Amino acid sequence: MTDAPDLEVTRSRTQAALLLVAFFMLGMSLRGALGGISVLLPMIGDDLDLSPTQQGALTSVALVSMAAAAPWGARVGRRLGPDAALGWVLAILALAEAARFLTTTLAGLLATVVAVGVAMGIGSTLIPAAVRRRVVRDRYGLTTGLHGAGMAIGVASAAAVALPIADATGNWRPALGVWSVATALTGVVWWLVLRTTRPVAVGSELTSSDVLVGSPVRLYRSAAAWLVTGYSAVVMVIGFTVLAWMPTMFVAEGLSLGAATTNLVLFQVIQLGSMTVFPIIIDRVATVRARLCVLLVPLGAAVIALALLIVAPVSTGAPAATLLGFGAGGGTALGMTLIARFASSDVHAAGLGSMVFAVSFTASALSPVLVGLSAQLTGSFAYGLGALALLALAVFVMVSVAFTRVEPRYP
């Protein structure tokens, strides 16, 4: 099949800037609602009389919902188009977040968590399709990098403001519900994008063969699709596992809670920067081998960091956190860039995105549990970290061998 051609579209600086702002805000909205709940769990638990297991369910249900909804992203994108579908996702997300102002029971709160997770899962799969439709090819990296930075800032911002808002109001509900305002604002900005800019790629008016390429059956038989999925999944798994266990792991090794938290903050700061930088670099390199080298840097950094945490977690805590930030942050953003680069159309991008995020979210939901179970059974995090290191090393080898054979050649 031939690639869908880019249309000759000239954008003003204002239109180009509006697009970048829109994808950054989409990143914040599609992750912001995840950041506040974990910080407020003690307050929510006391108010609703929740057990530790029930409190834990609030954080895991969102990720499971995202994984369950991801395969539907391609179908929604094909039916509505990625542009309109993202608008509906933002509307549902804003309503679910606003409903938290009125939540009084565990069932009600879980319902909002499921709705938020479903919207995030579908929305995440539509982002590469929207990038493919609205952004010229040499800006894919910059756009997905800013989107990734928006995701990281969204989670961090929600966590940072949740407790002050809850303390100021004496209630956890406004601290969660306030994100509905930010999501609604993102919806307005996205509407302005659709009103003021034209697509740069042929969109939903594609042939049946284009739709077939994006179908699950064809994608799950594609070596290129599995390469993108494997790369994206392993870096996302490492990122979610590190977020879940880094402070606990360092404290278990004898580090103070303050030092452990400092390492976690360092990880998040480096992750944010690498999410922006690595995709821009891959846009600027001209050869397949150069792009391969860019892709391998985050994987190599993650393998080295995990090895350091196994061998000397206390003395190498800061370097390991830095390398993990490069691995998880840069790798996640590069994974999203690969979806847009490998897709031949926005329909194909939505299908590939559904596959990538369904596998990645499912694995990311299971990994922290399995690593925690391993630590409980063996008395050490080393075995779980070792398994992650071997997985990252296997994907490193897979990408090294296969990337130059499967990357699409664009004119």
Under CATH, the homologous superfamily of the largest domain reads MFS general substrate transporter like domains
Give the ordered list of helices and strands. Answer: HHHHHHHHHHHHHHHH
Count of DSSP E strands?
0
Distance between the termini: 14 Å
Question: How would a crystallographer describe the biggest sheet?
Answer: none
The computed structural class is: mainly alpha
Query: Unreliable runs, pLDDT <50, ≥5 residues?
Result: 1-8, 203-214
The share of residues in helices is over 70%
Rounded to an integer in angstroms, the radius of gyration calculated over CA atoms is: 21 Å
Q: What is the global morphology?
A: globular
CATH topology tier name of the largest domain? Growth Hormone, Chain: A
- The CATH class designation of the largest domain is Mainly Alpha
Strand content: under 5%
Number of helices: 16
Mean pLDDT figure = 84
Tell me what the CATH architecture of the largest domain is.
Up-down Bundle
What's the number of structural domains? 2
Condensed summary:
The chain has 411 residues and is an all-alpha fold. It has helices spanning 13-48, 52-69, 72-80, 82-98, 106-134, 140-169, 173-177, 179-196, 208-213, 216-219, 223-252, 257-284, 288-311, 317-342, 346-378, 382-406. The longest helix has 36 residues, at 13-48.
